């Protein structure tokens, strides 16, 4: 029942830019299954109403389809592909940005009995579950507000809080709750993730990043791997190659300079690692990317 109305609302309000009149709410409508494309997840809830999608993060692969949802608690580099989409039956998805401050506020309001203790081992940064009816009901009611501009300003924040509460108390609640805990293992890993993303082009010592994140080296390795499915160095490589791919879309004839800009001193190493990641040499992939960079594979996780 909920999925049918959800599909109708998503199809009616889908726009090329994926945004909506409700802050933090995204809608995706994808009419073809394009090749896998890299993107960053953001911290997000994504619900599939029609079709299916596959995400790869490090050595982990996540697949979710109509009636399922995905949560991402850290902004992670993934490769995504809609695997079930055509013009007659497009893939339809709902996205909601998850704000750590909003999670923290709800946890404080609920009291300490509903919050996990901080400082435990970090959980994976991405998880997939079947969407329960109360969650789908809240998502549908939020989307209905797109047709009710008079009510939207007052009611949308309330329904978004309900959706967040459904997540916090649901099957993947542990992952979502960690977003709001200032001293959780996830928060320490997220600090390191942000630093690596901001300084991806420069070399670093893992010991220094562990210290920056406030963890011992052994705990940092363990928790970083648990959240991201990668080592810190592998994570840096993923960011470098994704940034290089974006740059090559606008500078396809400047492969050496792009490689150097993202942190590679060796052009041959850059070309070798790029080809291993994307299946084609930088110059060849750049040509292909210019034709597909505006497609929808990375619109929602």
UniProtKB/TrEMBL annotation:
Keywords: DNA-binding, Transcription, Transcription regulation
Gene Ontology MF annotations: DNA-binding transcription factor activity; sequence-specific DNA binding
HTH araC/xylS-type domain mapped to chain residues: 190-288
Protein name: AraC family transcriptional regulator
UniProt source species: Streptomyces olivochromogenes
Organism classification: Bacteria, Bacillati, Actinomycetota, Actinomycetes, Kitasatosporales
């Amino acid at each position: 029942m909920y999925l049918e109305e959800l599909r109708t609302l998503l199809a009616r309000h889908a726009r090329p830019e994926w945004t909506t009149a409700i802050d933090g709410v995204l809608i995706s409508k994808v009419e073809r299954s394009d090749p896998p494309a890299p993107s960053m997840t953001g911290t997000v809830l994504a619900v599939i109403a029609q079709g299916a999608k596959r995400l790869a993060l490090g050595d982990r692969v996540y697949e979710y389809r109509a009636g399922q949802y995905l949560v991402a608690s850290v902004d992670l580099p993934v490769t995504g592909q809609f695997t079930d989409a055509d013009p007659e039956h497009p893939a339809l998805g709902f996205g909601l940005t998850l704000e750590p401050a909003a999670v923290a506020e709800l946890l404080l309001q609920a009291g300490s009995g509903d919050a996990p203790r901080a400082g435990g081992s970090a959980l994976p940064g991405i998880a997939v579950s079947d969407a329960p009816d109360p969650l789908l009901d809240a998502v549908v009611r939020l989307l209905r507000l797109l047709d009710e501009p008079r009510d939207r300003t007052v009611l949308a924040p309330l329904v978004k809080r309900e959706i967040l509460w459904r997540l916090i108390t649901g099957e993947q609640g542990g992952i979502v709750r960690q977003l709001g805990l200032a001293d959780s293992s996830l928060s320490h890993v997220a600090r390191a993730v942000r630093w690596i993303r901001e300084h991806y082009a420069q070399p670093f010592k893992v010991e220094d990043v562990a210290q920056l994140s406030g963890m011992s080296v052994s705990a940092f390795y363990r928790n970083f791997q648990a959240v991201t499915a990668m080592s810190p160095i592998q994570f840096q490589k993923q960011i470098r190659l994704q940034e290089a791919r974006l740059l090559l879309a606008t500078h396809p004839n400047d492969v050496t300079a792009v490689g150097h800009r993202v942190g590679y001193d060796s052009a041959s190493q850059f070309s070798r690692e790029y080809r291993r990641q994307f299946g084609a040499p930088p110059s060849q992939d750049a040509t292909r990317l210019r034709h597909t960079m505006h497609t929808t594979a990375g619109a929602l996780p």
